[in-house]
Amino acid sequence: xxxxxxxxxxxxxxxxxxxxxxxxxxxxxxxxxxxxxxxxxxxxxxxxxxxxxxxxxxxxxxxxxxxxxxxxxxxxxxxxxxxxxxxxxxxxxxxxxxxxxxxxxxxxxxxxxxxxxxxxxxxxxxxxxxxxxxxxxxxxxxxxxxxxxxxxxxxxxxxxxxxxxxxxxxxxxxxxxxxxxxxxxxxxxxxxxxxxxxxxxxxxxxxxxxxxxxxxxxxxxxxxxxxxxxxxxxxxxxxxxxxxxxxxxxxxxxxxxxxxxxxxxxxxxxxxxxxxxxxxxxxxxxxxxxxxxxxxxxxxxxxxxxxxxxxxxxxxxxxxxxxxxxxxxxxxxxxxxxxxxxxxxxxxxxxxxxxxxxxxxxxxxx
Length: 366
Ligand code: FA5
Known about the structure:
This protein has 366 residues and is α+β, with helices and mostly antiparallel strands. It has two domains: 2-89; 108-348, Bira Bifunctional Protein, Domain 2 (BirA Bifunctional Protein, domain 2). 39% of the residues lie in helices and 22% in strands. It has eleven helices and eleven strands. The protein has helices spanning 3-17, 21-31, 37-44, 50-89, 108-122, 136-139, 178-187, 226-241, 299-304, 321-329, 342-348; strands at residues 126-127, 133-135, 159-163, 169-172, 191-200, 211-221, 248-255, 258-271, 274-277, 286-297, 313-320. The strands form two sheets. Strands 1, 5, 6, 7, 8, 9, 10 and 11 form an eight-stranded mixed β-sheet that branches. A three-stranded antiparallel β-sheet has the order 2-4-3. The longest helix is centred in the first third of the chain and has 40 residues, at 50-89. It is elongated, with a radius of gyration of 30 Å. The protein starts with a helix and ends in an 18-residue tail after the last helix. Bound molecules: adenosine-5'-[phenylalaninyl-phosphate]. Adenosine-5'-[phenylalaninyl-phosphate] binds next to strand 6, strand 10, strand 11 and helix 10.
């Protein structure tokens, strides 16, 4: 038996016997690694005469292929076994009787939506809804973003391949603002609504997910001004975070559908890795988190929605529900919200009996 054949047989046996990914990696280094014997044997081909090379190369090449294939197959098998073992360990028996099974819980996003509906209802707002599958007229055009408007590109929109019967693009709504248009077309002015719901953008990191939640607010009446917007947001956040020292920062900004536009930041400090809302930003370790956009509704939007801007004006806002849930309940990574991990849900979820009410405190935990 040649040196190559016996080495290959030994390597294949070692690969078959490897009982962990680490042991397999050690065997890979010994054979195909930079200093492995297969790699060294391949290098010797360079110094041979053409005849010697023709004679020696096929054995080395086929040893390399056999070993690489065996390594691949064993790696797949070991990974599958590892996953199997993990699933076995984290097993939940869903057939257990209800009393012994882990308790179901209300997701923090649902809880926060209930909390904000409760607070805004007290301020005289009704809850409005709109479809998650929208057309581009409601999502963009009627919000003063015509087809060539650069702001459309900022939304990383998910489009459907089909169009509506009258030729409009169909998409997953990128914000809750189209509900402004639908509500005004339905009800006219005056109007005072919030619209919580899911929105979609092609975006993903610790503070961005492709599906997230916003709550839209819209107030249209006579003599409404920016002061009413600030009071409404401040009153909401005081009730939501259940403390009086909430500080909001309104930063001049730009949205095509509001003029003027302001972005809303809330001040917080960090204690023991947890964000605590309240107090002023910047000084003494305080910081600001951006939670939404807002402004006075652009007159063109009122026209698109059939409301006379000479008679009515008002404000609108759009807040990230997941962001304010993170701030209130202390989660750091937004992506975990949507993993469906029962341990996360057991930790951060709420009892179904824990209905938020203003008298009991909107965030009371059972
Ligand atoms: C808007 O979506 C505007 N429609 C808001 C608005 C409404 C302005 C009414 C004026 C009047 P923006 O893209 O900035 O704006 O998003 C608003 C908030 O949604 C952000 O501040 C943030 O809190 C949240 N948000 C945005 N993208 C994501 C994401 N990928 N994941 C989680 N939250 C997000």
